[in-house]
């Protein structure tokens, strides 16, 4: 039975030509397997479908999460050890995965990934509340096109408390990227004239 608890991680994949791709992704663990549900179409889905492999990265540097939703995807990577793929250089640990089973779905197929190799690269110093705030902020930014501005503002204001109290330099940089993304989205929306409004303005 699948564990319904979702863990926030970063999945790295490579295209058939070796081009790496970095994407934050919530994953589930089930009887030793890692369950991925990438959207279709997406680069992560297409890469796994083509190569049959992926790498699960456990990271504390939340700039990876914030960067991935604000156009900053070029993160240092290192070669995987047992599969053709890459892992994040900043990963505290990583798990190299092989596609064992695929359950089709129009939007989000369920990919059962078998563990091929695991390695630890750093120690876990403890959880920072600001890190959780950045991850939640990144989720909000990824959904700016579907969430009311009032909801985004209220949740970002609450998350700002954790940033102010517990953030280090990395979290503050990541939070700055997210705030800028919200501002850019608002500015772009304000500069867009809806067709209905245009017709009203053109009417005598």
């Amino acid at each position: 039975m699948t564990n319904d608890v979702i863990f926030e991680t970063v999945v790295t994949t490579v295209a058939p030509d070796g081009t790496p791709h970095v994407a934050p992704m919530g994953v589930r663990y089930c009887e030793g397997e890692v369950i991925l549900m990438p959207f279709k179409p997406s680069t992560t889905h297409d890469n796994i479908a083509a190569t049959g492999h992926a790498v699960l990265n456990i990271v504390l540097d939340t700039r990876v999460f914030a960067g991935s939703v604000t156009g900053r995807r070029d993160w240092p990577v290192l070669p995987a050890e047992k599969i053709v793929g890459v892992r994040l250089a900043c990963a505290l640990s990583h798990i190299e995965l092989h596609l064992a089973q695929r359950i089709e779905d129009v939007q989000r197929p369920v990919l059962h990934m078998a563990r091929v190799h695991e390695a630890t690269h750093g120690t876990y110093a403890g959880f920072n509340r600001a890190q959780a705030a950045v991850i939640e902020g990144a989720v909000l930014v990824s959904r700016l096109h579907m969430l009311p501005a009032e909801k985004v503002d209220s949740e970002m204001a609450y998350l700002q408390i954790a940033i102010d109290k517990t953030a280090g330099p990395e979290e503050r940089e990541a939070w700055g990227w997210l705030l800028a993304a919200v501002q850019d989205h608002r500015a772009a929306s304000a500069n867009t004239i809806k067709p209905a409004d245009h017709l009203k303005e053109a009417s005598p």
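The longest helix spans residues 169-190. The chain has a mean pLDDT of 92.
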